[in-house]
Amino acid sequence: MQVGVYKPVASDCHAETEESGAEIIAADAMNLWNAAGNPRTLAEVCPQRFRAPLAPTRAAAAEGKTVNADQLHRAAESWLSGFDVTIIEGAGGLLSPLADGILNLDLAKQLAPIQLVIVTANRLGVIHQTLATCAAAIHGGMTPAGIVLCDTSENLDASANENAAEISRYTPIPILGRVGFGSSAVPWADRLLD
After folding, report:
1. pLDDT score, position 14
2. Residue of 4, 5, 6, 7 marked active site
3. How far is it between the farthest Cα atoms of the chain?
4. pLDDT tens track for 63-99
5. Which residue would you say has higher pLDDT here, 173 or 15?
6. Number of other residues whose CB lies within 10 A of the CB of residue 77
7. Is 54 within 8 Å of 62 (Cβ atoms)?
8. What is the per-residue pLDDT across 128-146, written as a single tens digit (0 to 9) for each?
9. With a threshold of 0.90, does the pTM exceed it?
10. Strands 102-103 and 14-15
């Protein structure tokens, strides 16, 4: 399967080397790119990268730049053909800003029809975070295709085995599955391709 990956903008990026003028790398984009088998170039995976650990608009401003709002959409469209599936990872949550006046939700709506999948950290507090994100998506005009819970460490709190059932009690959005910490196997992922 050919998998495309795109991260519209990233902050908290670091130089691969300490040389002046060295290209800065987004760790999330690098992980996506490697997991997908290195499609295209890393610069195409995440074309807008900033150093400061701030919201992208603020991180760009700290460098005397702005996030190019047109490029967010234009660069995403180039990934939507030529692949069996494309994963677009937002920066922050669904209501996090990508550029002035543009949230992750706005970009998702511009790219419709796409499947919006809510990926959450499986820990205490995830029930509220997930339900609030689903409600925001629906209020914003997009119904998520599903929810994926990700174990973020080997040492999980007591809620980890209960969170999926609790979330399911309060939303019709299906739980697609759970990804164990360090796992590369997601046998349920094919449900998204139907």
Report:
1. 92
2. 7
3. 53
4. 999 999 999 999 998 899 999 999 999 878 999 999 9
5. 173
6. 11
7. yes
8. 999 999 999 999 999 999 9
9. no
10. unpaired
Cα 183 to chain centroid, rounded: 18
- Report the alpha-carbon distance of residue 130 to residue 124 in Å, rounded: 11
Written out in words, the top-level CATH class of the domain with range 1-91 is alpha beta
Sign of CA dihedral 171, 110, 192, 5: negative
**Nearest alpha-carbon partner for 69 in 93, 43, 92, 48:** 48
Which CATH architecture does the domain made up of 115-194 adopt? 3-Layer(aba) Sandwich (3.40)
**Cα 65 to Cα 59: distance, rounded to the nearest angstrom:** 9
Q: How far apart are CA 44 and CA 40, in angstroms?
A: 7
Domains of the chain by residue range: 1-91, 115-194
**The pLDDT of residue 71:** 94
The residue assigned the tokens 């994100």 is 133
The answer to whether the CB of 91 falls within 8 A of the CB of 105 is no
Catalytic status, residue 65: no
Taking the CB of residue 189, how many other CB atoms lie within 10 A of it?
A: 15
The model's confidence at residue 16, banded by pLDDT at 50, 70 and 90, is confident
The token pair that represents 56 in the structure block: 């992208």
Round to whole Å and give the CA distance between 164 and 131. Answer: 11
Contact 87, 5 (CB under 8 A): yes
